[in-house]
Amino acid sequence: MSVIREVLKKLLSGPLTEDFPRKSSPTPENYRGVHELDTDLCLYIRYGICGSCEWVCPSNAICHLEEGGRRVFRLDLGKCIFCSTCMEICPTKSIKLTRNYEFSRRSRGEIVLEWR
C-alpha cells in the first residue's frame, strides 16, 4: 500500500525538472558561456597587431581578417570548445566568457560572432 501512496504523491507534486526556457537556470560563478569582446581594448581591432588568441585557439574558432579595409574579429561558436584559453592569453583582457548559455539559433551562420 505504501508504494501506491508514494506514486500518487509523486504524481500530484508536479515535475522535478527546471522550467526552461520560460525561466533561466542560474549559472555557476566561473561558467564559460558566450564570448564578449571589448573592441576598445583589442589590439587587433585597434592597431592590427597581436592575434595571440587566434594562435592559441585549439579548435580554430577565432579568425582575424580584413574586409573592406576594416579589421574583423570572427568567432565561430560552433567550433569553440569554451576552454577559455583565448581569455587567459589576451594581454589586454579584452575577451571575456560570459555566463550566457542561451545561444541556440536556427542557422549555423547566426552563431558566428563578428566584431569590427
What does this structure look like?
By secondary structure, the chain is an alpha+beta fold. It has one domain (28-115): Alpha-Beta Plaits. Helix content is 23%, strand content 20%. It has four helices and five strands. It has helices spanning 2-13, 43-47, 52-56, 85-89; strands at 35-37, 62-67, 70-76, 95-97, 112-115. The strands form two sheets. The protein has a three-stranded antiparallel beta sheet. Strand 2 (62-67) and strand 3 (70-76) form a beta hairpin. The model has no long low-confidence stretch (mean pLDDT 91).
Give me the CATH architecture, please: 2-Layer Sandwich
Largest sheet: 3 strands, antiparallel
Q: How many helical stretches? A: 4
| Outline | elongated
CATH class: Alpha Beta
Summarize the helix and strand pattern as letters: HEHHEEHEE
Tell me the fraction of residues in β-strands, as a range: 15-25%
Termini separation: 68 Å
Task: Give the strand line-up of the largest sheet.
Answer: 2-3-5
Domain tally:
1
Q: Level of helix content? A: 10-25%
- Would you count the extended β strands for me? 5
Global Rg: 21 Å
Give a short summary of the structure.
The chain is of the alpha+beta class. The protein is 23% helix and 20% strand.
Task: List its traits.
116 residues, alpha+beta, Alpha-Beta Plaits, two-stranded antiparallel ribbon, 4 helices, elongated
Lay out the secondary structure.
Blueprint: H1 2-13, E1 35-37, H2 43-47, H3 52-56, E2 62-67, E3 70-76, H4 85-89, E4 95-97, E5 112-115
Antiparallel strand pairs: 1-4, 2-3, 3-5
